[in-house]
Amino acid sequence: MEANPDATPIIHSDRGSQYTSQEYRMVTPQYQMTRSMSRVGKCIDNAPIESFFGHFKTECYDLKAYKTFEELVYDIDDYIYFYNN
Fold first, then answer.
1. How far apart are the C-alpha atoms of 85 and 1, rounded to whole Å?
2. pLDDT in tens, 19-54
3. What are phi and psi of 57, to 5 degrees?
4. In the chain, helix, strand, coil percent, each to 5?
5. Domain boundaries, the chain
6. Are 32 and 7 in contact (CB under 8 A)?
7. Which member of 21, 34, 45, 53 has the greatest number of CB atoms within 10 A?
């Protein structure tokens, strides 16, 4: 965010009930997140995020037993930086 202070996080999901719930729609703006959802019957919309998480799990998550939530958050942040750079 420091490099691009005007950037707005986008959170992409499928159309599962947890993502279409009123509570979810109310919480995401509180964290300044823009919601993005796959179109109905278009599973290909999820391909980029499914690819990212597939790589993350194989190259990072599955290789470690996390003792704390903070360790997991650190690895996610670190991996996102690695993935994008």
1. 15
2. 888 998 898 888 888 888 877 766 676 777 778 888
3. -65, -45
4. 60, 10, 35
5. 1-37, 42-85
6. no
7. 45
